[in-house]
Amino acid sequence: MTSSYMNELQPPQRVLLGPGPSTVHPRVLQAMATPVVGHLDPAFFQVMDDVCEMLREVFHTNNTMTLPISATGTGAMEAACVNIIEPGDSVLICRNGYFGIRLADIAERCGATVHLMDTPWGKAVDPQMLRDELKKHSGLKAVGVVHAETSTGVLSSVNELVDVIHEHGALAIVDAVTSLGGHEMRMDDWGIDICYSATQKCLGAPPGLAPISLSGAAMDVVSNRKSKVQSFYFNLKDLEAYWNETRAYHHTSPINMTYALREALRMMMEEGLENRIQRHARVADGLRAGVEALGMTLLAEEGHRLNPLTTVSVPEGIDDAKVRRTLLDDYDIEIGGGLGEFRGKAWRIGLMGESAREKNVFALLSALESILSKEGYEVAFGASLSAAQRAIATFGDN
Ligand SMILES: Cc1ncc(COP(=O)(O)O)c(C=O)c1O
Asked: Is 336 a pocket residue for ligand 1 (Cβ < 6 Å)?
């Protein structure tokens, strides 16, 4: 076999409608192709300041400690846990999907005694259930919750959950990896103590950075730790010194990813945060209407459906992997398969950031209609409107 590494890199142009990464706008890609400067160059300090300022706007926070971690979302989960949790601390993690499970796993690795509150997949975390659960525990240091569960397509009411967590006197750790930039997120108004996200979803940059923000109260907890933060790389006090204060070297910043994030955030500011959130809502409404017109079932609880990510039940008798492969090979469209309990049972359709466009909804619905009818699936258009017509009717409503 001859190796291919001497060939020029030519990745296919995919329409990214999976759970992330999402499509990256050419402006963001161009920003990445601008000159590398040193991580201690004053010109880069300005880029860093711009990024932090815009991140504060996106999180709706005044937290000084707001910066992008050099990692993907999982790195931010680690950073949140490893800085807040000390060995022997008790925490509670609300699990209603795959990423809640991951958060609990990471908390346990930090030496915490982890209590779990499980909610069935497809359902939102219920504030009253949390209140009742918290009565069974004393001295919890933190409660972790996933705002937008990407494995199930469910949005939990974080603002209500944070109130319940604070009634109990614990810190609220919120995973906003799939919600930030695609759903409302008001960190300060809702009183969230620690919130993190990732660049490759609704923020519209490639994977590689993970914004995180900590309230003053949360930073006090970090400052008053008895034990050293176990991770050197994710030690927030040191990262803060580089990003916000003395510009002390900690690690070599991923310069060009930071350019990308700056440009992606600049595009968000141009569009306006409210407009962007409404765009995500509009296209998701169209997708949901089209999917239902095709006779397929949505998996997430009504009233708690995510806009950036829609979960659809794979129809009986349809080969999940084959359909996704055909979408990729014949239409250049990527959607995601199910994770964990939903493996083989769900399609995860992302409309995030630049991918959240009407034209992508039409392209996907048409492709699905064609593939599924060839697979013997009887496409059942509700009220005789085609899936695309359904979507158009919905777009018209907004
Ligand atoms: C809700 C949620 N949390 C955490 C992660 C982990 O992020 P990453 O894959 O960027 O490490 C993801 C990734 O999809 C996610 O959807």
From this structure: no
